[in-house]
Write the structure tokens for this entry.
Amino acid sequence: MKTYPMYVAGEFTAGVTTQMMDIYNPATGEVIAQVPQATRQDMERAIEAARNAFDRGPWRNFTGQQRGRVLFKIADALRKEAARLAELETVNMGKPLTESEYDVADAVTCFEYFGGWATKIFGEVNPIPDNAMSFTLKEPVGVCGLIIPWNYPLLMAAWKLAPALAAGCTMILKPAEATPLTVLELAKILDAIEELPKGVVNIVTGLGEEVGAALSASHKVDKVAFTGSTEVGRLIMQAAAKSNIKKVTLELGGKSPNIFFSDADFTPAVEGALFGCFVNQGEVCSAGSRILVQETIYDKFVEAMIEKTKTIHIGPGLDRSNKLGPLISEEHLQRVEGYVEKGKKEGARLVYGGKRLGGNLAKGYFLEPAIFAHVTNAMAIAQEEIFGPVASVIPFKDEEEAVRLANDTPYGLAGAVWTRDIFKAFRVVRAVRAGILWVNHMQPTYVEAPWGGYKQSGIGRELGRYGIENFLEAKQVYINLSEAPLGWY
Ligand code: NAD
């Protein structure tokens, strides 16, 4: 079995801990690797390394061109390793290989995109009225804690590392407990790039409540960029407030509405409902898990969803014929099964699936996608983030009701609307309070366009221009151009 070290101060290390964490293949339930379960002391060391690299190291004073070139090198090296990394992602996380391949390709694009931004960081001249000049300098925010979830391990790392590096920050990345392997492989790629000074990127594995908490409570960290659950996001904000008012950006949970009007193109709409909700086993923050369907097509739509879902192949992600892999863990599978039971008790009609798969899949964490019909928006299965392949199909009468239901949620990450009427589509886009709205599609994500949520889905935006701004401070500089005395006394 493979043992992976952490990456601290430019060295591969087991840390002070002798405690190791087992890493599983969720398709088989087998332990495939071990990684250190870092202690708070290990985290302190990593923070110290990042602090030194920021305060004394050359990184923040590199030119944009120099930093950009480092990011391009990372992208090139990742591209060379793409096939191996995609396979490892599937073995560790469970998702189908084609999706891991997309993720690795997107991670490459992310490093290239933000590599380009490194030479395009500049402030502005402020139009003040006096004989003086005021301008804004953009500077790196400092030492950053990057905390990521398990559903897109390498991609989430890239979304945070790439802009933080382009901005000139130094960082400590903490991968999720279940899925550290591709990120630890990335450490080898980073280590091989001579121009990247030691200590700029540190990677610490361990428990969220221990090392993640130490990172967000540290007085030596200037910012935490977090992706994960709303519950943990709240803890991170509290820790930031109680320590040094560090900056936070939070990409949190969701319960996104996917709205289907009767005039939508029927076949693509049904496919969009299933893809929007079940892709990546439904373990997607923006999953369209509340499927709002206009009454006049409701029964036909649910029927078509059932028929299509029957054709979805489920099994180990390495087999390319499978469209859905296992859920991440036994514990998570049981949690999702718990929601299936809850939905039934609440009075929703389970019209398809929801059962754990047995036979030769029994050792893995496989669940049939579940479709609930006649769901009301007040039910727990319509309000709470399940993070699994469970669709709640809710009927609505007209546009006004669709918008009201769509907004009746504490979350506001994403949403989609399907119709051939562009005027109606745009009215709904404006009325739904969420950070990403798709029209006649659901889920496409681009590194060039901002990502993030309204309401309890988060604070701030990643990607696009916003992505780089997240890791920059604005310094206002004033230059007096008047030679006359101030005349104050
Ligand atoms: P999680 O919140 O349980 O864990 C996320 C990370 O936080 C992990 O690395 C974990 O170790 C760490 N952590 C846990 N407790 C901590 C603490 N007290 N202090 C600091 N760090 C701590 O989330 P998860 O189960 O890994 O991922 C699923 C969640 O992530 C879902 O809610 C999903 O919606 C969300 N998510 C959001 C986005 C987005 O862009 N908005 C993207 C992907 C996932």
